Amino acid sequence: MPPDQALGVATAVVPHGGTPRRDASVPARGAPPSRSVRVRRIDADLPRTVHERLTRLLARRVERATAVDATFGADVAERVARFTLGGGRRIRPQFLWWGLRACGLPDDEQVEAALQLGAALELIQTCALVHDDIMDQAPTRRGRPALHVDFTAQYRSQARAGGARFGESAAILAGDLALAWADDEAAGVDLTGPQARRLRETWSQMRLEMVAGQYLDVQGEHTGNRSLRQAISAACLKTALYTVERPLQLGAILGRADDATLRALCSAGRGAGLAFQLRDDLDDAFGDPVRRDKPAAGDLRSGKPTYLVALAQARAERDGDHRALAVLARSGRQVLDDGDLDDLRYVLERTGARQLVEDKIGRLIAQSARHLDSVSLDPVAHARLRLLLRQVAGTPTAPRSPAGAVEGAAR
Q1: What architecture does CATH give domain 193-396?
Q2: 197-231 in b/e burial notation, b at 16+ Cβ within 10 A?
Q3: How far is it, in rounded angstroms, from Cα 135 to Cα 128?
Q4: How much is the pLDDT for 24?
Q5: For residues 15 and 21, is the Cβ–Cβ distance under 8 A?
Q6: Which terminus of the chain, N or C, has less C-beta within 10 A?
Q7: Whole-number Å distance between alpha carbons of 186 and 179
Q8: 368 and 382 in contact (C-beta within 8 Å)?
């Protein structure tokens, strides 16, 4: 079905033997766009729509923060705004939007709620990234100094004895502010009744899962726990649910999806979200550092217990490969030079871990596609979701993709 037809966009009607006349549902020049035309515009470039909304929202938020205190507004609120607007592919709002669109043509109330929640998702992502960079002691993010590094640099000349942790402390507060703004936006969605309750419950669950996954990540790094079970659990909680499944679920709830559709979208999202994290693990170890928004091999250097490393560990233990185990033990326990990193990559290859993870990604995306195919979805949204799920997993897309498809894998 053509996209216009699927959206219900009216076109000119040509009477037999006459000249084109405008259908009554097509807005006259100067009139506000019809609902279907507005949805079509958002479909064409959802990231831009969310960015424009964030720009207006954050201008108001910074103004209010500055009214409370000028230094706080300039140092903290403006940094949160710049960080939020300065990068990212708006992947979570995209899944929310297409979860809504999968249920049909949304009305104005649903569109407004989706855009408001999309902005909230970007703010909670700001909180997650700022805090993650502190925990990982990452020096950069998105090609610029991480917030805690930026704070430290700003006040380096004014630092007093014992103030070495100022940058981290200030960045924690910046992340807290982003989270507060995110919750304000989510709480302000103008809905009532069971739908509003389900949205609140899903939002609350998503925040809890995100923090739980992040804790398992740092706890595993601290203790050296490389169990496959914990690695998968952390990947599901901190990425699969938070990045893909819950945003899809929020959109489907907004779209008043039936139970079968909601289950199918959630299952598709969980598989693709896990594939997304596994691809990120591979990119950290083997990817092009120029294309990443954080330092290359950061997980290997810090000893993060990713599924990739846990799998290499398990296979080396099974095979009694003591040389491989000795190399894996270096991760996170010493400063790694290029030679050490090459040794680690060789072990990840030799144990078969890299290929096994690639294979798992392929299976997860195939399962996600089957879940989407198991229910009746809006055809435009169905095609876009299939493409988007493959892109976040970094798997090749079909030669022919729907018009206006999202470009590039999300990171």
Answers
A1: Orthogonal Bundle (1.10)
A2: ebbeebbeebbebbebbbebbbebbeeeebeeebb
A3: 10
A4: 35
A5: yes
A6: N
A7: 11
A8: no
Residue 7 carries which DSSP code? H
Half-sphere exposure of 8 (CA within 13 A, CB side): 12
Q: Under 8 Å CB-to-CB from 46, ≥6 apart: which residues?
A: 90, 93, 94, 97, 118
CA distance 261 to 125: 26
Report pLDDT for 2.
Answer: 36
Q: Which of 369, 370, 377, 376 is nearest to 100 (CA)?
A: 377
| pLDDT confidence of residue 292 | 58
Of 315, 382, 302, the C-alpha closest to 353 is 315
pLDDT at 158: 84
CATH topology of domain 34-190: Farnesyl Diphosphate Synthase (1.10.600)
Question: What residues does each domain of the chain span?
Answer: 34-190, 193-396
Q: Which of 339, 277, 335 is nearest to 310 (CA)?
A: 277
Q: In what helix (H) or strand (E) does residue 145 lie, and over which residues does it extend?
A: strand 144-145
- Transcribe 353-378 into DSSP letters: HHHHHHHHHHHHHHHHHHHHHTS---
List the Cα angle 103/386/252 in 5-degree steps.
25
| Residues in the chain, pLDDT under 50 | 1-29, 31, 398-411
pLDDT at 13: 31
Nearest-angstrom CA–CA distance, 100 and 248: 8
Measured between alpha carbons, how far is residue 395 from residues 138, 163, 278, 293, 403 in Å?
Answer: 27, 46, 12, 19, 19
Query: How far is 293 from 121, CA to CA, in rounded Å?
Result: 19
Greatest Cα pair distance, the chain, in angstroms, is 88
- Residue 50 in tokens: 């969310």
- Give the separation between CA 59 and CA 345, rounded to whole angstroms: 45
Place of tokens 């949204």: 381
Q: What is the pLDDT of residue 173?
A: 98
> Quick one: pLDDT at residue 202?
97
Q: What is the DSSP letter of 400?
A: S
Closest CA to 362 of 291, 282, 288, 304: 282
Task: Report the distance separating Cα 167 and Cα 307, nearest Å.
Answer: 31
Q: Which residue has the tokens 């000249």?
A: 19
